[in-house]
Amino acid sequence: MSNLQNEIGSLSAAEKFELLDILWESLEGDAQSLTEAQRTELDYRTARYERKPSEVIPWEQVRTGLLRKQ
Length: 70
Description:
By secondary structure, the protein is mainly alpha-helical. The protein has one domain (3-69). The protein is 74% helix and 0% strand. It has helices at residues 3-9, 13-30, 36-51, 59-69. It is extended, with a radius of gyration of 17 Å.
């Protein structure tokens, strides 16, 4: 396990939530650097999910499938 993962693992639940909030806010700033094509794709995917959420494949399932291919 990496040093960062060890440090995160030693945090309390409240500290992890605070870290998550800080990370999320930093990602919101990065969203401004998206190209128009990327924004269009994200809008498309969001709308598709909102129309039929049951068709979304959970990340865990995608990850498992990717790891099997390695």
